[in-house]
Design goal:
Length: 122
């Protein structure tokens, strides 16, 4: 099986551990300077964070551009040539540094929370 197929299966098994996402917790993760780091590259409608990135598309309105399925894929599948990090499980990924192997940035619940927040950005 190709690595991406493995990654997709791993992502399904992994998400099955989590309860339904909570958009408020997801917003806090997106705003976080310690964990999500989304605002390093993206802007988002999070007014209290003054410093926002302009290296990546503004996340405002992202849910009208991408379906829930596309949002999930964008968060968990690597895309060649993109600096957008992978936030799902690392199984099936190649060239993952020793220190980061089997240590996803978000746990399964945090990923669901962030997805719930992104889906609210219409
Ligand atoms: C190191 C920079 C970087 C970080 C950190 C980062 N992203 Fe991205 N992201 C990108 C880039 C560049 C793109 C556009 C290219 C692509 O889609 O791969 C992107 C694309 C996306 C897209 C698709 C947007 C669209 O309009 O198509 C979503 C959704 C997204 N990122 C969410 C997030 C979230 C949520 C976080 C934090 C948990 C995050 N990103 C962290 C760089 C980053």
């Amino acid at each position: 099986m190709k690595p991406l197929g493995v990654a997709l299966l791993a992502a399904c098994a992994w998400s099955a551990q989590a309860a339904e996402g909570d958009a408020a917790r997801g917003r806090a993760l997106v705003a976080s300077r310690e964990q999500g780091l989304c605002l390093l590259c993206h802007a988002a409608p999070i007014a209290e964070q003054r410093q926002q990135g302009n290296l990546a598309p503004d996340l405002a309105g992202v849910a009208s551009r991408l379906t829930p399925q596309q949002l999930r894929q964008r968060m968990t599948e690597p895309r060649a040539g993109s600096m957008m990090p992978v936030f799902g499980p690392t199984a099936g990924l190649q060239h993952v540094g020793e220190r980061w192997r089997d240590k996803p940035i978000f746990d399964a619940q945090q990923l669901e929370d962030v997805l719930a927040y992104l889906q609210s950005l219409k």
